[in-house]
Design brief:
Blueprint: H1 2-41, H2 49-52, H3 56-69, H4 72-103, H5 105-119, H6 127-134, H7 138-162, H8 166-174, H9 179-213, H10 222-231, H11 235-266
Length: 267
Amino acid sequence: MSESVEIQADGLSASGRRLELGWLLPAGGLLLTLALWWLATAPELGASPLAARFSPAATWDATLALAATNELWPHTVDSLRRVVVGLVLALAVGVPIGLLVGVSRTFERSTTATFQFLRMISPLSWMPLAVMALGIGDAPVYFLLAFAAVWPIALNVAAGVHAIDPRWQRLARSLAARRLEVLIGIVIPAIVGHLLTGVRLAIGLIWVVLVPAEMLGVQAGLGYFILDTRDRMAYGELMAVILFIGLLGYLLDLAARLAHRAWDRRD
């Protein structure tokens, strides 16, 4: 009896140590990053007056000022709207492409080289053509975001179709199931996990492309606000917006990860 109690106590202490490490290590990494940032911008350590304007203290003051005026929130809403539209467009194009690649060997062989070639072109290289074809405004931004996001979605959907056990499809055909019934009853439920992985990757790419894409002439958005702070030489605000972009991107990725975990637990 005493041995079992000791084993349980050891297990609890080990889990407690893991929990502590789970918090301490990330917190330590953040504190180290903050210290390096301060060292690089501290006038006392030889940093230039310009570098000092990017310091943690200046950034914190600018963050408080932005929070007090709510100036940043309309730009955030515009950026998130563009993320949603770009992701929806990518899903509307990428999911059918992925399904076709997965179910049709002929389509896969005839398009793989083209898709891989297009996938390796940086979405930002299309910026001049997007502006020439679609004009100034949201339309070229939507195009660039959707172009960045469509490939991970299509490739992961195709991988999900390829991973389906062929015995399930043979069983469905033996029961005289039609193609649409096989698609709805077997293929789509089987690829949801792969699709969520593709969506997570797509969100990461969209978030990276968003800021430079919003420098195409739109009048609102986080990318536009960065240009505005640069033009006003409000460097504390510039750093505050950069950190805010990082935080929002982290939260979007976290939401995608939690959705994937929820689906895995459901299975």
